[in-house]
Structure formats: structure tokens, C-alpha cells
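hey m, so remember when u said the C-alpha cells were messed up on ur end? i reran from scratch. heres the input so u can diff it against urs
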Amino acid sequence: MSNDGLGSNPQAGGFSLSAISVAVTGLGEPITGGNAALGWRANTLANGGSVTITTDGTFDFGTKAQAAQRQLAYGSDVRVNGTPDATEVLGGAPSVTAWSSVNETVEIVDDVLPDSVIDQMYLAKSVGSIIGAAGFEDISPADGITLYTSMWVRDSCNFFRTYVSTYDNVVGTFNTNADYNRGERVTITKDGEIDIHGYVTRDDPTGFITFEVDGAVWAAGAAGFESCVITGDVSGAVCTAKTTAQGHQASALSATKILRIYQEGNITQGTQSTSVVTSRISNGLVDVDYFESGAALDVPPYDSPSSDNSNLTSPSTIPETWIHYELELDFSGASGRVTIKQNGTTIHERTDYEVDKLSPNFGFRLDNIGMDTPGLYMDHSTVGASVRFGKLYADSDLLRVYIADASTLATSTEYTPLPITAWSSTSITADNYGDISGKYLIVSDGFNEIGSVLV
């Protein structure tokens, strides 16, 4: 097999691509190829094999704190710190050995999968359905304040345009789906004149209705739906929004978090506390908050992409569509950096976080993967929204290897971090993800690509 598709993006003072050699090991007869600059051999390129990348010493791959990634969930291939977890059962709840906290309704499903290699994913139904990664329970500042995570997410609706309200005067039954994704189209009439169109995602029998509206978020807010008439376009079902019934107020889901990665704890700055919370909101917004010394905790000045202008950094969700999210944090230098990508495109990056504001006692955790939002006026279980997530790779180290369909991430339409099984300064071993024939291996020390090779 030819390696004439060789590509590279060398970094200053670092990578000499001619110093890399690749060997693919597995079952079957050896296949060899390469030239003086690069060589590799393979026994199998199929899923289930492994890839070993070596250098002659010209480049130092670096040293990982631990060889394997801290958390991996590629379908039923679930690993915590490199150790497989065999207790994930289709149709059941996520394993507590792999996921340190499992809250409310999170189940393992095998429908609507993102690709043919994956055999199962997770479905979180209703706000409050969250899990935490066991691989991140023991991280301390000594491990370094760096983190990389890659995850595929499929939102049931546009959370920034979704509302929950109590109702009365119901006639008929709205057409909804068991997974709390978009059901039938509805027309919402205000004062008999203003029509707002959208979808109903849940008609809860306890008297709550969840609906998504088209267009921009309604300026009147959730309470503005008081006395609106909601009519199903297909079923003809009708109800009247009663936003303060049962002692509850209508709520918007604009704060819904799908992934939260945060540093737990605080440090004292005079009479104030400094805390760090990093969140991947449902639409891809990175929310890194810490509060400046001497400032009140709920007012500026504080350093937060969301408070600066969330509209500039948070594109709309794409409901019922798989989205690849990547989040990288690097607080190991003089200033902190946060980068987030959506489908390979950087949608937010900030490089001016003050590292000395971080807690000296607590490292980052990977937690609240699923659906979680504060401040709802009703019980979380009444909320009619859901999210599918999984194919998750996460580590407290920035070193990683991708399998991609082009020689650089920027030109790739698909790429996936490979499960790492061994890492040293001169050798990296990773498991195949699907058939790697004709694919590129891309080595990265962060969002900087340091070399690639065609298999």
C-alpha cells in the first residue's frame, strides 16, 4: 500500500515527519510499505487491530501522566483509565463503575447511532438526567490543569427556544414521542392575534407541557405565554397555558447544560471566593467563570465568555442532528486557554484567563454529562426534552492521536480520537477505530497537529 498521501503540519522546533515510522499490528499476514522517510507494516487494518506509531528519536512524543485516556465510551467499548467496563447493558442504566454518578433517567440505547462502528449510545430524558465520569474522580492539580474531551451529541430540540409551562382547558391529545424530541407542529396564539409556530415535545399527564418555538426567543419570556392557546396542527388538541398553575412558573431551558467540566472548590481572595466552572452549554458555548477579587459574585467584573457576549460564541443547536464537540483547556502556562470546536470548526477560543485564580486544591472533573439546568420552577422530571450523547473520549492530558479522512484536521470531514493503550516518548499504541485502510493518523499535542501519515 502506498504512502504517497503523506501530510504534515510541523511545529516550531519539534516534529520531523521523516523521523516517524508506523506499524499496524493485529491478526493476519503482514502488509508492509513505506520509504526511507516513513515505514509501516500491518497484519490487519480492520476494526479490532492496533496501530503503533514510532519515532527514531528525532521527535519526543512527550510523556503522559497515564498511558491511556481517562474515560472512553465508544459504544459498548467503555474504559475507565484504560480498564474495560463490561457492565453496560443495553436498555439499562449506565454502569456506576464507569460513571461515578447516574441521576434520574439515563438509559443505554441502540437507535439513531452516529456511525456504523458504534453499537450503542446514551439517552438522557428530562432535565436532571446526568452522569459523571469516574475517570475524573481523582484528578488533582499535580496532574496539571489541562483537559481534552471529544463527544458526539444529538439534541432533541433547540433548548434556547424551548419552554415548560403548566396548562389547563385541555381538549384532545398532542402527538408526541417517547424520547421527548420534536413531536407534532403546534400553533401558539396570543390574544387571538399573534401566531407563534413550533413543536410540542412533551404533554406531561401531571399538567405540564413542553414546547419549542420557531425563530428568536420570544422577548416576553416564558411568563409571556400566560393564557396562550396551543393547538396541535395534526391532532387538533388544544390547551391554554397557565404559567403559574400548581404553584409553578413557566421556565425557559436557555441554561441547559449538556456537558460540564469544572474545577471544584475555591480559593480566598480577601473576603471573596474565586471559583472556576467550565460548561459546554447545549449550543456549544464554553462558560468559564471566575470572579475577580473584591467583586460581588453575581455582578461584573468577572471573566466569562458567556457574560461578555454569548450570542457571538454560541451558534444555534441543530436538533435531531449529530454534532461533534471538542473542548480543550490548558491552564498549565502563565495564562489559561479554552478552545471549543463544533464539527471541526473553532467556534470559541479565549487565551487570557488568569491562572493564579485557580484553586490550588482541586483539579478538573468531567461531570453533568447529560441534561442539567439550575433555577427551574418545576420538578426536573416534568421537562420534555432529551439528548443523545456518547462516543466520548476524555483525558486530563492534551496528547492524542486521531484517525481522519485527510492529512490535517482542518481539511478532514471526519476524525475521531483513537483509544490509546500505550504512550512513551518514542512510541504510541492505539486501537483501530473501524477499518483504517486509506485513513490518516494525526498526532497532536493539543490543537496543534505535529504530523500525519496515510495508512
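this time it looks ok to me. Residues 305-313 form the longest helix (9 residues). if urs says something different then somethings off w ur setup not the seq
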